[in-house]
Write a structure and sequence with these properties.
Layout (H helix, E strand, L loop, with lengths): L18 H8 L6 H4 L1 H21 L1 H25 L5 E3 L2 E3 L4 E3 L7 H13 L4 H32 L4 H29 L5 H4 L1
Antiparallel strand pairs: 1-2, 2-3
Length: 203
């Protein structure tokens, strides 16, 4: 008997992918919480940098070779400012004195802590390195200007109003310098760190 010709198998069409499966395949893997929430990432980096900065300046070689000479320079500038306003003072190391009063500028009165807070906040904030460099330079100058006013004001307070010196030293001016650093960071983050839309885009 003659054999019947074999029938060719028709290829099956590719199996359609369900929409749910396609969506599952295209969905990226979950990201860690610090990537999903920028504020968590900022806070974590800020705290790490702040701890590292305070640990560095507390290290004796850094304190003796960097912080102490820096603080002595602050004493010289503060003494010069006091002489400009008519105070007869002498400077020796970190000490400023006159016949009525003497003040020793130590860590906590040199503005370094406020500068470290500002530095950690600027570096932790997502901005360009150019904006960060500008912010650090301007912020350091501004914080030291505020600290200069603090040293001069505290010296005058101790010389003429000694009863309120302790409160002015530990409460008022310490808060003012830290608050100045925070406000400077807010100003920098708002004006320099975040790029502004172009005028054409705004129009």
């Amino acid at each position: 008997m003659p054999k019947s010709p074999r029938q060719k198998k028709t290829p099956r069409p590719p199996k359609a992918t369900r929409p749910a499966e396609a969506a599952a395949e295209s969905t990226p893997p979950p990201r860690p919480p610090w990537h999903r929430r920028p504020e968590v990432r900022f806070l974590a980096i800020f705290l790490v940098l702040l701890a590292a900065g305070f640990s560095l300046v507390a290290w004796n070689p850094v304190n003796d070779r960097v912080i102490e000479p820096f603080t002595a320079g602050i004493a010289v500038v503060s003494g010069a400012a006091l002489e400009l306003i008519g105070q007869d003072v002498t400077m020796r190391g970190t000490v400023i004195r006159n016949p009525r009063f003497a003040v020793n500028i130590r860590n906590g009165c040199n503005g370094v802590e406020a500068m470290l807070i500002f530095l950690a906040a600027v570096l932790a904030f997502p901005a360009s390195w150019k904006a960060r460099a500008i912010g650090l330079a301007l912020g350091a100058v501004a914080i030291q200007a505020v600290n200069l006013v603090r040293v001069v004001a505290l010296f005058l307070t101790g010389a003429y109003w000694p009863d309120v010196f302790d409160a002015s030293h530990t409460v008022v001016w310490q808060s003012v310098v830290i608050l100045a650093a925070v406000l400077l960071w807010i100003l920098w983050a708002d004006r320099l760190a975040v790029p502004r839309p172009a005028a054409a885009d705004a129009a």
